[in-house]
Write a structure and sequence with these properties.
mainly alpha, 5 helices
Length: 152
């Protein structure tokens, strides 16, 4: 069991680094004009719409991903053994990370599409902070497994 927990922690940390690295790569691609800069004209209705849609996505993604993870890692614990519980924990951590990763990558892309607006970068930065807040810790996995034992 100890080996599985260490492997899970390592996998989760690697996945977080990968998501953050992809965010940096998207930023570099924008700086190199691979992502078209200024495709949306500043001060237009289109810029307002793109920024509004992305802000709404981030406002829903941050609490939604955290709540989705919480619900799915506590609801079905009674039917799982420890191995299944660790697989479920990894799955829902990855889903949470993907939702937040889309916020990071999309925010950087929106920044380069709407050059005059920093809204995308601010939303991306908010998602980065939440990803770092969700940094995997041994204590949280131990508490999760302890809840598994208490429910059985």
């Amino acid at each position: 069991m100890e080996k599985l927990i260490k492997k899970l922690l390592l996998n989760l940390k690697i996945e977080i680094f990968a998501v953050l690295l992809i965010g940096v790569i998207v930023f570099v691609l924008g700086e190199l004009d691979v992502i078209p800069n200024g495709l949306v004209e500043p001060g237009t209705q289109m810029e307002f719409n793109v920024n509004t849609i992305f802000i709404i996505y981030v406002l829903l993604a941050i609490p939604g991903s955290l709540q989705l993870f919480k619900l799915n890692t506590t609801r079905n614990l009674r039917r799982m053994d420890k191995d299944e519980a660790l697989v479920a924990y990894h799955l829902w951590s990855a889903i949470r990370l993907l939702i937040l990763g889309l916020g990071i990558w999309g925010g950087v892309a929106v920044y380069f599409l709407c050059v005059g607006s920093v809204t995308g970068l601010l939303c991306s930065l908010a998602c980065v902070f939440i990803v770092l807040y969700c940094w995997p810790k041994r204590d949280s996995i131990d508490k999760y497994l302890e809840n598994l034992n208490n429910d059985n």
